[in-house]
From TrEMBL:
Residues 2-101 form the HTH marR-type domain. GO terms for molecular function: DNA-binding transcription factor activity. InterPro entries: ArsR-like_HTH, HTH_MarR-typ, MarR/SlyA-like, MarR_EPS, WH-like_DNA-bd_sf, WH_DNA-bd_sf. This is MarR family EPS-associated transcriptional regulator. NCBIfam families: MarR_EPS. It comes from the Bacteria. One of its GO terms (biological process) is response to stress. It comes from Shimia litoralis.
Length: 144
C-alpha cells in the first residue's frame, strides 16, 4: 500500500511534469502558484526531477531577464509522465468511486420521506432545537 506522503509526492510530481510539458518557461514562483505549494517546495521538486533525469534545465533566451530558465521534459520525463498520468487517473477514479459509495450510504441513512429526523413534517426552514439554530433540508434538494 502506498503511503499518503508518497501519493502526495507523486501527485505533485505529476502536476509539475504536466504543467512543464505545456509551459517550460514558467518561473518557479509561477509554477509554485499553479501547483499550490511554496516556492521552496517547487525548488525541491524541480531538483528531484532534474536528479532523476526527467527534467533538464535550459536557458530561456527569449526572456529579457537572462537569469530565467526553461524546465524541459527529457524523453525519459515524457515516458515517466505518461506512466504517472495513468497511475494518477487510476487513483482518482478509485477515490471517486469510494466517495460515490459513501454518498449513497449517507443517503440511505435518511428517512424515506426525505425529511431529516427531528424536523417533523416541516418544510425546509430554520427552527430552534435546544437553544441552537438548525436548518433542515428535504432530501430532494440533494442531487441523485
Amino acid at each position: 500500500m502506498t503511503s499518503k506522503r508518497t501519493k502526495l509526492q507523486e501527485d505533485t510530481h505529476f502536476r509539475v511534469l504536466r504543467i512543464l510539458q505545456e509551459n517550460p518557461e514558467m518561473s518557479q514562483r509561477e509554477l509554485a502558484e499553479a501547483v499550490g505549494v511554496s516556492v521552496g517546495g517547487i525548488h525541491y521538486v524541480l531538483n528531484a526531477l532534474i536528479d532523476k533525469g526527467l527534467v533538464k534545465l535550459g536557458d530561456f533566451t527569449a526572456a529579457a531577464d537572462k537569469r530565467r530558465y526553461a524546465y524541459v521534459l527529457t524523453p525519459k520525463g515524457i515516458v515517466r509522465k505518461a506512466a504517472v498520468t495513468r497511475a494518477f487517473l487510476s487513483r482518482k477514479i478509485e477515490e471517486y468511486e469510494a466517495l460515490q459509495k459513501e454518498i449513497e450510504a449517507l443517503k440511505n441513512e435518511l428517512p424515506e420521506d426525505g425529511y431529516t429526523l427531528g424536523a417533523g413534517r416541516q418544510k425546509p426552514e430554520t427552527t430552534v432545537c435546544a437553544s441552537t439554530e438548525a436548518t433542515f433540508f428535504k432530501l430532494s434538494t440533494l442531487k441523485k
